Amino acid sequence: MPLKLDVYVPALPFDALLSIMELSPRRTISTIAWTCRALYYAPQCSRLLLRDGLLLRSSNGLVSFLRFILSDPATRFKHLHALTFAMGDFSGEAVDAIRALFAHPLFNVDTLVLHDAEAVLSSGVAFVKRPKGTPVQQNDISESTTLGRTKAV
């Protein structure tokens, strides 16, 4: 028979959790944020999660990131300054997510890095608005007004 404790354990104060998050790696910050809706939507959480830029390594990660950023776009987009795509062979859902991300009026990163630029561009991801059916060109990235520095690796 399990032991039942009738002891109340108080929750940590919000500011204490934020202090812990300030000193934690991104994975820990994310885990803590998932435990509390108030933390998940706190502007400080977005700032901490995005402070070192973001590295996307999979289609699932990209779709998950889009859900995260669009759940509070006014707060979260302003903390996104650097974005790195470490892969280029995207699923159809991920290509749609990238298009939604780049088309969002609040999307404005300083640095965008494409590790497999040829694969990214061949996935059908357009970085600037083009007439439908027009092929994506390598120089489309440099023409984009939402990107400060772009690096194709």
Task: Provide a descriptive summary of the structure in words.
Helix content is 44%, strand content 12%. The chain is α/β, with parallel strands linked by helices and 153 residues long. Strands 1-2-3-4 form a four-stranded parallel beta sheet, with helices on one face. Helix 7 (92-103) links the parallel strand 2 and strand 3 (109-114). Helix 1 (14-22) packs antiparallel against helix 2 (26-34) and helix 5 packs parallel to helix 7 (92-103). Residues 128-148 have low confidence and may be disordered.
Main attributes?
alpha/beta, elongated, 153 residues
User: Class by helix and strand content?
Assistant: alpha/beta
**What is the typical, i.e. mean, pLDDT?**
78
Proportion in β-strands: 5-15%
Roughly how many Å is the radius of gyration? Answer: 19 Å
Would you report the number of β strands?
A: 4
Q: What multimeric state do the chains show?
A: single chain
Major β-sheet annotation = 4 strands, parallel
* Straight-line N-to-C gap: 59 Å
Number of helices: 9
Low-confidence stretches: 128-148
Taken in chain order, the helices and strands follow as HHHHEHHEHEHHE
Helix content: 40-55%
Based on Cα principal axes, name the global outline: elongated
Order of strands, main sheet, comes to 1-2-3-4
Q: What order do the helices and strands come in, and which of them pair?
A:
Blueprint: H1 14-22, H2 26-34, H3 37-40, H4 43-50, E1 54-56, H5 59-70, H6 73-76, E2 82-85, H7 92-103, E3 109-114, H8 117-122, H9 140-143, E4 147-152
Parallel strand pairs: 1-2, 2-3, 3-4
Helix pairs in contact: 1-2, 2-4, 5-7
